[in-house]
Design brief:
The protein has a single domain, classed as Electron Transport, Fmn-binding Protein, Chain A (Pnp Oxidase, Chain A). 32% of the residues lie in helices and 31% in strands. It contains five helices and nine strands, in the order αββββαβαββββαα. The chain has a seven-stranded antiparallel β-sheet with strand order 2-1-5-8-9-4-3. The chain has a two-stranded antiparallel ribbon with strand order 6-7. A hairpin with a 3-residue loop joins strand 8 and strand 9.
Length: 196
């Protein structure tokens, strides 16, 4: 069976409209990244759960796996907060935590889990991992929500408009940084860098 990969990827990308900032802490080191895989994982209103899929290439993946905690933040699309939202996106999405401190320029406070809560985010949930699923190149983490807050009113930032506001140089650097992550994912999935 042949799959039209362009169509499949287009359909699936429509399921990920909101970029989420994921933060965690492990061994006294705080880190984070941007993801398009955040979601809700429970229909029980009195016991909410959050889910995120993190690629194994990322330091944040290992930290969430080891610490068992994460904070998922939505960003604000409101004009007065947009610069702060884009700063979070560029900071957490533009480099690896293996290269140094990504959290130092972000305004944070310590959450109930000990992980950093981003004060310039739109909203957040803190979660303790209750289950995970290994899916070769990534792990899907499900967490029981232990705290939540709305820090800004208004609309939440969507990936399309956010991407359109980012500097060309940053996008080029992001794409260059994405290459080794994609190669790592292919090795986990197919056993070779090219997927052969």
């Amino acid at each position: 069976m042949d799959v039209d990969l362009d169509t499949a990827n287009s359909v699936l990308s429509g399921l990920r409209p909101f970029p989420v900032a994921i933060t965690t802490i492990e061994g006294g080191f705080a880190n984070g990244l941007m993801s398009l895989s955040g979601g809700a994982a429970s229909i029980v209103p009195e016991a909410p759960r959050a889910t995120v899929s993190l690629t194994k290439y990322n330091k944040t993946h290992d930290m969430v796996s080891d610490s068992g905690i994460f904070v998922m933040h939505l960003l604000s699309a409101e004009e007065e907060y947009l610069d702060a939202s884009l700063h979070i996106l560029r900071t957490l999405g533009g480099s690896s935590g293996r290269d140094g401190d990504k959290m130092g320029t972000l305004r944070t406070r310590t959450g109930v889990t000990g992980a950093p809560v981003l004060l310039d985010a739109h909203s957040y949930v803190e979660a303790r991992v209750c289950a995970s699923l290994d899916v070769q190149e990534s792990t899907m983490f499900v967490g029981d929500v232990v705290a939540a807050g709305v820090l800004r009113g208004g609309e939440r930032l969507r990936v399309g408009p956010a991407w359109g506001r980012l500097p060309k140089e940053w996008i080029e650097q992001y794409e260059a940084n994405h290459v080794p992550q994609l190669e790592s994912a292919r090795r986990y999935r197919f056993g070779s860098p090219d997927g052969d």
